[in-house]
Specification:
This protein is α/β, with parallel strands linked by helices. It has two domains: 276 residues, P-loop containing nucleotide triphosphate hydrolases (Rossmann fold); 247 residues, 3-Layer(aba) Sandwich (Rossmann fold), CATH 3.40.50.880. Helix 5 packs across helix 6. The strands form four sheets. The chain has a nine-stranded mixed β-sheet with strand order 11-10-12-13-21-20-19-16-17, sandwiched between helices. Strands 5-2-6-1-7-8-9 form a seven-stranded parallel β-sheet, sandwiched between helices. It has a three-stranded mixed β-sheet with strand order 14-15-18, covered by helices on one side. The structure holds glutamine. Glutamine binds next to helix 15 and strand 17.
């Protein structure tokens, strides 16, 4: 029988529930357990695919093509295990499934209700994750904050779950925040209230993890233990960490791994945390500063580019570098005449996106990178902008475009495939998930991968238009990665440049903190070389002093 840990959140959102759940998963996996993860999102959308990145940050794409919550990215990076579409459920999915069953007549005679029909559907999805992943432990994160109207059916479902599978197989973990008063005192009252709220629905937490800007003293932990009826040992302090990648070791040191396994009656060997220690060492000693521009339209919310930013950091650390990201607003770049925001960069990343807004700024950044020989990496929309830019230069007209932005362009260098037209619906009409790509021998892409075929995750509608292959090759662009049948362009590059490469797919979803993605690694090497050639990337005493 697998074990289940339910992670709920109280007091406020954005406490780092995803990082905490992922970190718990990682310290359990370090004990040799097979750990699966599940994020339950209370919103009504079927998936976050149609939501603005301003609302929920990036849309994470799984191998099997689900558009999912960004917390799944944390799970993959921390637990080092690929998840599937079963690892993210939403209220939209649950209701759709229940209504479909009702129409089919599965509940004939019954009045279909939240309890038991919705809660049963939720519970069956939890079991499904455990089954499909053959998990010893499933870490289930309940999105939102306890007390929200939307999350009630989930809380009720996890309450019933303990009775269904037996008390010894379930653990409730509640994450809260201790705010500080104007006088500087940490307060436990909001935590008491949120636990009270949880108990009013019938759940008594076994473990309380208290977030605060510093570690909790004994007195505060005792108070939480007393008022929330939790063992003092099980009140865990989770202060802000030096890096998100410091959280697993911090939680392990506070005893969380031992407590969870003991409470669930799991006999495991001592955890093997070498990989996390090595990573800490690697990050702390990575000092060479690199300044990398991220050109996008959602830059106010850095979470919109979460996996891209993490991938850049992972590759930089492996090269002993500290990547400092300069967020560049592509709309501003488009509006303002000058390229000032791009000056002095060691490298440029143009990430993915949808819609016309900010495109001209991205095209400008691509042109800047190409003409001034600054290492440039284009991802999905970023790659498409590289193509648009070169086509405009080659044809001597700004009319070249993607039909996503200009349906009537005379030069549709990025376009829908004939079979994609007239589909109608916006949700679920994209090329999604893992597809093979064959890097062309003798190219930068091939050297970086060192493999004859790679699987990469996609999330896009539009494709490179093959009618323009010849024109662009004549201007120095190489199609260095193709689908196995040779029909789809997956990678473009310009060999006569320190690093100018774009991918139709999203390599950022496969990078791991201790195993950066080869294309990001190759990009960072070029960035470092470029920075050095320009007298930058120097570890000054000031850089050394910056504590991490
Ligand atoms: N909007 C582009 C397309 O659909 C690029 C998508 C992306 O960057 N993820 O093809």
């Amino acid at each position: 029988m697998p074990k289940f840990v339910f992670v709920t959140g109280g007091v406020t959102s954005s406490l780092g529930k995803g990082i905490t759940a992922a970190s718990l998963g990682s310290i359990l996996a370090a004990r040799g357990l097979s750990v699966a993860s599940l994020k339950m999102d209370p919103y009504l959308n079927v998936d976050p695919g149609t939501m603005s990145p301003y609302q929920h940050g990036e849309v994470f794409v799984t191998e099997d093509g689900a558009e999912a919550d960004l917390d799944l990215g944390h799970y993959e990076r921390f637990i080092d295990r690929n998840v599937t579409r079963a690892s993210n459920l939403t209220t939209g999915q649950i209701y759709s499934a229940v209504i479909a069953k009702e129409r089919r007549g599965d509940y004939l005679g019954a009045t279909v209700q939240v309890i038991p029909h919705i809660t049963n559907e939720i519970k069956s999805r939890i079991h499904r994750v455990a089954r499909e992943a053959q998990a010893d432990v499933v870490v289930v994160e309940v999105g939102g904050t306890v007390g929200d109207i939307e999350s009630l059916p989930y809380i009720e479902a996890i309450r019933q779950f303990r009775n269904d599978v037996g008390r010894q197989n379930v653990l409730y973990l509640h994450l809260t925040l201790l705010p500080r008063t104007v006088g500087g005192e940490l307060k436990t009252k909001p935590t008491q209230h949120s636990v009270k709220e949880l108990r009013s629905i019938g759940i008594q937490p076994d473990v309380v993890i208290a977030r605060a800007d510093e570690a909790l003293n004994e007195e505060l932990r005792e108070k939480i233990a007393l008022f929330c009826d939790v063992k003092i040992d099980n009140v865990i302090s989770e202060p802000d960490a030096w890096s998100i990648y410091g959280v697993p070791l911090m939680l392990e040191e506070s005893g969380l791994g031992r407590i969870v396994t003991e409470e669930l009656g799991l006999a495991t060997p001592e955890p093997d945390l070498r990989a996390w220690r090595e990573l800490e060492e690697r990050i702390r000693s990575a000092k060479i500063p690199l300044e990398i521009g991220m050109v996008g339209k959602y830059i106010e919310l850095h979470d919109a580019y979460l996996s891209v930013a993490e991938s850049v950091r992972h590759a930089a650390w492996a090269a002993g570098c500290d990547a400092r990201l300069r967020w560049i607003d592509s709309e501003k770049l488009e509006r303002d005449g000058d390229v000032e925001p791009l000056m002095g960069l060691d490298g440029i990343v143009v990430p993915g996106g949808f819609g016309y807004r900010g495109i001209e700024g991205k095209v400008k950044a691509a042109r800047f990178g190409r003409e001034r020989a600054v290492p440039t990496l284009g991802l999905c929309m970023g790659m498409q902008c590289m193509v648009i830019e070169l086509a405009r230069t080659a044809l001597g007209t700004d009319d070249a475009n993607s039909t996503e932005f200009d349906a009537f362009t005379p030069h549709p260098v990025i376009d829908l495939l004939p079979e994609q037209r007239d589909v109608g619906e916006k949700g679920g009409t994209m090329r999604l998930g893992s597809y093979p790509c064959v890097p062309t021998e003798g190219t930068l892409a091939h050297r970086a991968y060192g493999q004859p075929i790679v699987l990469e995750r996609h999330r896009h509608r539009f494709e490179f238009n093959n009618a323009y292959r010849e024109l662009l090759s004549s201007r120095g662009m190489t199609f260095s990665g193709l689908s196995p049948d040779g029909r789809l362009v997956e990678i473009v590059e310009i060999p006569d440049h320190p690093f100018y490469l774009g991918t139709q797919y999203h390599p950022e979803f496969r990078s791991r903190p201790n195993r950066p993605h080869p294309l990001f690694t190759s990009f960072i090497h070029a960035v470092l070389e470029h920075a050095r050639a320009n007298g930058r990337a120097v570890v000054t005493p000031a850089v050394m002093q910056e504590a991490r």
